[in-house]
Records
---
Amino acid sequence: MDTFMTNFSRSSLRIAREPDLLPRQFLVVLVLLVAILVGCATGSHQTSWFGEFQQAQRGDTEATVRVATLDALASRALIPADACLATAEAATRAVAAGLADAGLRNRRVLEEVACKAHHPEARYRLLELAVQVGPGTDVDRHFERLLLDHPETFWARQGFELLWRLREPGTEAHLGRRYASWYQQLSGTSLAGHSLFYGAQALLALPGVLQSVTPESREALHLLLLLIEHHSDSVRWDDGVLLAADLLASLGYRGDETRLLEEALLPHPSRGYDTLVDVFSARLRLRLARLYQRQGKFTKALYQLGLVVNVHDSLSLKDDALWRSARIYATLGKADAERRTLTFLVEHCPWSRHLDAARERLAGVEER
């Protein structure tokens, strides 16, 4: 009896509490529905906003009307990045049309966002405007603030590329040294490698630098070797290796080019210990094999080419490696090895640019 009463009491208590669960469940469902509706409305607004922005960019309306339209779009933007984009576009159009007041007003808006909201894209847009306006503007100031305030952002990396892409002809030497001058201040950030790479690239764009040893070519090589030695985690490291190899080759330093490529293929903590998986390493091995072939180091050349063919995943380089291997076997007088290599190339690389030459060569080998 006591057991029955205890169970009855528990059941009654559970039944009495169950109605309280209904409002909670209803609230949860309601919150989810509101979130979904808000998300859909936001997505719809974004699609509509971007469509209007593109139309304002492409439209043939008068400059004053277009700037006003872009200003309105900036005020309606839900995302700060969109507001920056529309404001910067309005400023660009205003400056191009000679609307000084509108251009100044929009630049001030961007300046306020860049300073108070610490927004990297706003600072980048200001730099973009300054570059487009031309000399005598705040290019250096905006570039400095972008690099020092936002060194780990996409927009800081874009800042380097922007100055290089929109450079004035004849300013390469100045630009190269300006890039390189940022190295010490950016040390410890991911942009340190950028300052070295772009500095070297600008110096190497000067006339005659790649044809003879000049102060600029030595300075560029110094910057690239600094990048290769100390900033292997930089996204510009691969480009730096190839640019340094090109420079050494153009100056006739084949031995130094060989050593550079050999060291670049060594395992390294920041690049990973497996140098047999990426396309960049395959390109280096193919280039190194060509150098070994010129130096008469055929065994070393065949070893590197064999890795490209048998281990690397890069399909686009395998036919080049096979063709060069066949040429080396021909030089060594190994007709059987040459025939096997050419046959493999013809059968497995029907897309190869060496296909016709390989068939012709194979026919000649088989006639012997």
Note: The first helix runs from residue 2 to 58.
---
Amino acid sequence: MDKKSEYKQSENSSCSISKIDLIFQECEKAFREETRREECLTDKAEKYVVAIASIIGFKIIDLDSLNFSGLTSESLRSWLAVASFVVLGIALAYALKSRQVWNFLSYPRKKSGTIIDALKSNMIDDDTAMIKMAKTYEEIREHNALINDERAILLSHSGVLIVFGFIFAVTGHLVQKFCL
């Protein structure tokens, strides 16, 4: 019987799990969840970039008809179009910046040497090794969480700017339709 089978059998018979195993499993789960969060933020950033590029693409068609002279509705529409471009450009910059993932750690590793080097000593028992691995998972999860938090803030700002850029674009079209 292999080690996993023995563990499952002992787990089923006693219906309890050791604190060390529980700590390790929860730290590993938290680490994996933060990695999943990183992937979700990247997907969201890519969707924002596509949305912004689409809106800007439709607005580029109107560039030839911009007129800034006088205090007419045409001038107002032109200024709203420029405001839309500027706001959407900033939103695009935030979305692109949030796609950058620097120093995101995808696998537990120690700063000096490998995990194997840190745990191969005969003086380290199984429980100590599990606790060290759990600590490693927790430290790396915290590091990655800080990176993801910054990315989430950038995406939040980008989302707000997309809304304002879209409002400026729609308002410009409404001015053109009802005031000209």
Note: The chain has one domain: 17-179.
